[in-house]
Amino acid sequence: MRMVIKLGGTLLDDAASRRRLAGEIASGAERHQIVVVHGGGKQMTRYLAERGIESRFVNGLRVTTPEILDAVLKIFAGTVNTELVASLRAHGANPVGLTGVDAGLVDAELLCPDLGHVGRPVGSNPALLNTLVHDGFLPVVACVAGDRAGNIYNVNGDRMAVECAAAFEAEKLVFLTDVEGVRDADGKVARWLTPDNARELIRSGVATGGMQAKLEAALVGLEKMRQKRGEIRICAGFYDGIMSKIEYAEGPGTGISING
Asked: Quick check: is 245 catalytic?
């Protein structure tokens, strides 16, 4: 199975959590072709606060000035990526740290001038991912993208994962996060959603903030993956054994597919 795992920065901020997930992903990579995409928003906010730089958000996206873009490279492509790669290697994997800039893995364009250096993914070249997984390596991609003109963009990690999954022709895209799944109007975790279900949760205001962003990314992902059997899953990454559980259709959290 080809699988893309998106790791939220909260799960990677704690060393014990990072080591546990690294062990499970390394084990999963022995059975499947896996690509890891990660964020690091919590680490970024802390880094900026320690330097007296205010974090400003518009519709959940961090306004990225040239100063903050420099921090994005230091934290996302630097500290967070390297710590995760080191943890995976400690568990026997052959991880390779990357950004979307490498070999045009993910290209982006300016999303909105008011947001600064924030990009919208517009395409992905899977050649590097295919080469790496074919030779037994585990790609670990930070959510930084670029373009042929040499521009660098801060990209939403969920959208980055969607772009990688589509180009990589993944059969499963999993968002591992710090919540148990998508909650319905009754506050219960929904086991399965169709695209129409997901849109209704957004339209009715049940899904807001970060979960709205994940559902919107999932809807884009289903369209881009174009596989009637393709599945996207949103679930908690803080449970022991989560990787072995998400390998199965009736895994934890919320599954989103064309047929629900």
From this structure: no
Q: Write out the two tokens for 2.
A: 């080809």
Identify the active-site residue in 41, 116, 237, 255.
Answer: 41
- Architecture label for domain 2-257: 3-Layer(aba) Sandwich (3.40)
pLDDT digit string (tens) for 85-121? 999 999 999 999 999 999 999 999 999 999 999 999 9
Active site residue 251: no
Domain ranges across the chain: 2-257
6 counts as catalytic: yes
Catalytic residue among 8, 107, 214, 253: 214
